[in-house]
Design a protein that fits this description.
- The complex is a heterodimer of chains A (334) and B (522).
- Chain A has 2 domains: 2-73, no CATH class; 91-327, MetI-like fold, CATH 1.10.3720.10.
- In chain A, helix 5 (87-122) packs across helix 9 (191-228), helix 6 crosses helix 9 and helix 10 (231-238) runs antiparallel to helix 11 (243-271).
- Helices cover 75% and strands 0% of the residues of chain A.
- Chain A has helices at 2-29, 34-39, 45-55, 61-73, 87-122, 127-141, 144-158, 181-188, 191-228, 231-238, 243-271, 275-280, 286-295, 299-327.
- Chain A is globular and about 85 Å long.
- Chain A is mainly alpha-helical and 334 residues long.
- Chain B has 522 residues and is of the alpha+beta class.
- Chain B is 31% helix and 21% strand.
- In chain B, the strands form 4 sheets. In chain B, strands 1, 8, 9, 10, 11, 12, 13, 14, 15, 16, 17 and 18 form a 12-stranded mixed sheet that branches. Chain B has a 4-stranded antiparallel sheet with strand order 4-5-7-6, with helices on one face.
- In chain B, helix 12 (373-386) links the parallel strand 15 (357-361) and strand 16 (390-394).
- Classes of the chains: A mainly alpha (334), B alpha+beta (522).
């Protein structure tokens, strides 16, 4: 197992270099000159030249690439063209917000999705099954932008139960070293901040959670249906085991493999930042960082973000593969 | 009768004391301002966008500044100045007893430092910024000299009157040399100036927190704290204001304006901004080399309908390149009226009785001066079709669009401009003088060249007398209207909204909103 993990981790190196090369040349082939966008209508010839030189854009692309690769190996992703901030600091400042939101929405989406999926499978063709289908179809097809606004109008404007947007009340100053406000305020015992952060989390997490919820519910339902028809379930029932035990111990565990795959994929893609959710709820996450960087042709930040996403995705895939082995002891990696 | 008068007087005094008594400013409180985007950086000389400058202008100050809603120049960190007879030496007396937020004294040394780091390539701190505006604002500057602790001298390469207006721009703010030396490349997130507010905290994409500078030389601000909060979605920001979780905002959806105006808890502000949206006709390409064609197009486009439909209350029809609230605006200029018949006649006279085919370029993204570029282009396309001109709409991504128009690849292109310093030179000379019509780097994308206009504009740069400059710009506008290189489309206004209890709030014409005198009545 350990050798397998080490091997997988080593494979990541060529993957990351490959991703870097693709990203590097791809974003430079999108039309739009960063210096021109930076200066907008007000650019003069001298200013454009000066800025291109300062950003290193006057050198041939291939030389720029080797510079970039060399610096990346040293762990230096450069500084943002736009803000002049160090790219790894930009990621460090924006990613925790996204991570916290993703974790919360995945917890919500997986729990509710699993419960709905199992219930729908065990009550096949009942009203519960239909409701689950409706919820999952709606969850997949509802635009998050619209859902978010409606949720804000109901819970924040009409009933004043929850805050409209943001991560924390703006008058609160809370410096979280990890950037994870909920976790750190809990550890430090700062319950005012903890409570406020939880309040701010509910709407965005639930809205964003509808996306994984829908696919998890559907996957659980179909996977459960398949398992429930198998011989060993019949055996278990015949042995006289309580239905609860048959479903949750025997059937669900065997139905989980495809569900875990879906959870892993959803988790990975949400970690790349949910731009729309982050925009509507004024969530200072990495999705907004990367989209704004693309609009400004801020090459170092785009590169940094995409390489970081690639790393996370590969890493989560590995994690999912390891979890398989725990769920199904027949799976062994050598 | 006397008794009655006396009674009325007492009542009047009582009422007025209640009414005006409530208007005595109160100290204290936090104002949260909601905005659409985050600041890019907080080094005043190294930013170009409004979201950055609105914060830097609270932390930093220049030698001079703009007065309220006008473009008049007033002393700030300088107390007085004089210009030598040849217009090349500007001497400024500095305000005494001012300190930066870190305790560093403000003096001639700091002034020289703030400018040198922007344009002297050998300055040790030159390498820490891109100094995007230095090419523009400091172009005429040769060097800065310290005369004594509180006197500095700016030596120009050539006489240039708008230089004073340049010094009032955000990029010419004076920074604490101690802080720049301490933070180096990270000064942009550790700004230290002399302004009414001190920097406290910046959470990227979320908020910037400032606090009152209690030692401010102009008297401490009323507010204790000022928070700029980023709320990217316009509708969500408006919901926050409705609920009272923010106190003020800008970036308002035109569709929300009626509801904002109707809300009894909200005050709505609208001030004409110093900008222009125009349609440039590339006079180097046929048939736009013919002035009759250009005039015909001016007659063919129904500007009022466009402004009514797509600017929804925040725009006015433009007849000159500069807006009415700018110095030198010539109201006597007669605009080409909307008249498709006349347009057809002019086209026939020019040799195009059946019109022609051409391209119409439009920006890919909304800009301050054009909230709905595609719709405006479609309306112009339809208007032109009525007089027989078939225009194909063309667009590119923003950076490419700017490059290609600078290159003169277009036939007709919509673009706009926001004034940097409020001086007419910064609009008319930049956008319509022959000096700026060089292919590849043109800001005059009509490639319009008129020697008479050029002489007037250069003379206006060198003249220091304001009435004389006004007359020169007035005559420039007459020539431009006659030659019709543009269709001047619209000027827009800046809009903002606050809760009713926010007092003394106003939107200046050119610089960022000033919060120094803003107070909360709650």
């Amino acid at each position: 197992m350990y050798r397998y993990i080490i091997r997988r981790l080593l494979i990541m190196i060529p993957v990351m270099i490959g991703v870097s090369a693709v990203v590097f040349f791809l974003i430079r082939s999108i039309p739009g000159d960063p210096a021109q966008i930076l200066l907008g209508e007000h650019s003069s010839e001298e200013a454009l030249e000066k800025i291109r030189t300062q950003l290193g854009l006057d050198k041939p692309k291939i030389i720029q690439f080797f510079y970039f690769l060399y610096n990346m190996i040293k762990g230096d992703l450069g500084r943002s063209f736009l803000t002049n901030e160090i790219v790894s600091i930009e990621i460090y400042k924006h990613f925790p917000a996204t991570l916290e939101l993703t974790l919360c929405s995945m917890i919500f989406g997986s729990t509710v999705g699993l419960i709905l999926g199992v219930t729908a499978a065990t009550h096949r063709n009942s009203i519960i099954d239909y409701i689950t289908t409706v919820i999952s179809v709606a969850g997949i097809s509802m635009p998050i932008f619209w859902l978010g606004l409606i949720a804000i109008i109901i819970f924040s404007i009409k009933f004043h139960i929850l805050p409209i947007s943001g991560r924390l009340d703006p008058t609160i100053t809370f410096k979280a070293k990890t950037g994870l406000i909920i976790l750190e305020s809990l550890i430090r015992g700062d319950f005012t901040v903890f409570k406020d952060a939880i309040y701010h989390m509910i709407l965005p997490a639930v809205c964003l959670g509808t996306i994984p919820l829908a696919s998890i519910a559907r996957m659980t339902r179909s996977s459960m249906l398949e398992v429930l028809n198998q011989d060993f379930i019949r055996t278990a029932r015949a042995k006289g085991l309580p239905t609860r035990k048959v479903i949750y111990t025997h059937a669900l565990r065997n139905a989980l493999i495809p569900v875990v795959t879906v959870i892993g994929l959803q988790f990975g893609s949400l970690l790349g930042g949910a731009v729309l959710t982050e925009t509507i709820f004024a969530w200072p996450g990495i999705g907004r960082l990367s989209v704004e960087a693309i609009n400004a042709r801020d090459y170092p930040v785009i590169q940094g973000c995409i390489i970081f996403f690639a790393f996370i995705f590969v890493f989560i895939n590995l994690l999912v593969d390891i979890i398989y082995a725990f769920i199904d002891p027949r799976i062994r990696y050598e | 009768m006397k008794k009655l008068l006396g009674l009325l007087l007492v009542i009047f005094l009582l009422v007025s004391s209640v009414a005006f008594g409530a208007e005595t400013p109160k100290y204290g409180g936090t104002l949260i301002f909601g905005r659409g985007g985050d600041s890019v950086g907080l080094d005043p000389a190294d930013v170009t966008d409004g979201e950055s400058t609105r914060v830097t202008e609270m932390i930093f100050e220049g030698l001079v500044g703009f007065k309220g809603e006008t473009t008049d120049i007033v002393p700030v960190l300088a107390t007085s100045w004089k210009v030598s007879n040849d217009g090349k030496v500007w001497t400024f007396k500095l305000r005494k007893g001012v300190r930066f937020h870190d305790g560093t004294p403000f003096n001639a040394e700091a002034v020289k430092f703030s400018f040198d780091r922007q344009f002297d390539k050998n300055h040790p701190y030159y390498k820490y910024g891109k100094w995007e505006y230095a090419e523009f604002a400091l172009e005429p500057l040769e060097k800065v000299e310290i005369v004594d602790d509180y006197t500095v001298r700016f030596i120009l390469k050539y006489p240039f009157s708008p230089f004073l207006a340049n010094l009032a721009m955000f990029s010419c703010a004076i920074v604490s040399p101690t802080a720049v030396k301490k933070y180096g490349a990270d000064f942009f997130k550790n700004p230290v100036g002399t302004g009414p507010f001190k920097f406290v905290e910046w959470v990227p994409k979320d908020k910037i927190v400032l606090e009152a500078n209690t030692d401010y030389w102009g008297g401490r601000p009323y507010l204790d704290k000022l928070i700029f909060r980023v709320i990217p979605d316009n509708s969500v920001r408006w919901l926050e204001l409705q609920r009272g979780t923010i106190d003020a905002m800008d970036g308002i959806n035109p569709d929300d304006i009626p509801a904002i105006k109707a809300d009894p808890n909200i005050t709505f502000y609208q001030v004409p901004a110093l900008n222009i949206c125009y349609l440039a006709m590339n006079v180097e390409k046929k048939p736009f080399d013919n002035v009759l064609v250009r005039r015909a197009i001016n007659h063919a486009i129904n500007k009022k309908a466009i402004v009514d439909a797509f600017y929804r209350g925040i725009g006015i029809v433009a007849k000159n390149p500069i807006p009415p609230n700018m110095m030198g605006y010539n109201d006597k200029v007669k605009d080409y009226e909307y008249n498709p018949e006349k347009a057809k006649q002019l086209l026939a006279k020019a040799g195009y009785p059946n019109g022609f085919e051409t391209t119409l370029w439009t920006p890919p993204i909304p800009r301050v001066y054009i909230p709905q570029p595609t719709k405006v282009a479609e309306a112009i396309q339809a208007d032109l079709a009525k007089v027989g001109i078939k225009a194909k709409i063309v667009t590119y991504d923003w950076g490419t669009y700017l490059q290609k128009t600078r290159n003169g690849e277009h036939e007709m292109a919509i673009l706009g401009w926001g004034s940097d310093n409020g001086d007419p030179d910064n609009t008319i000379y930049v956008l319509l003088d022959k000096d700026n019509a060089k292919k590849g780097v043109a800001s005059n994308i009509a490639f319009y060249k008129n020697d008479k206009l050029h002489d007037i504009l250069i003379k206006a740069q060198q003249t220091t007398s304001i009435p004389a400059r006004k007359r020169l710009y007035e005559s420039a506008q007459v020539i431009i209207k006659e030659d019709a290189p543009w269709v001047t489309i619209a000027h827009t206004s800046a809009v903002a909204a606050t809760r009713k209890y926010v007092k003394n709030f106003s939107i200046p014409a050119i610089s960022a909103i000033k919060f120094t005198r803003v107070w909360l009545d709650k």
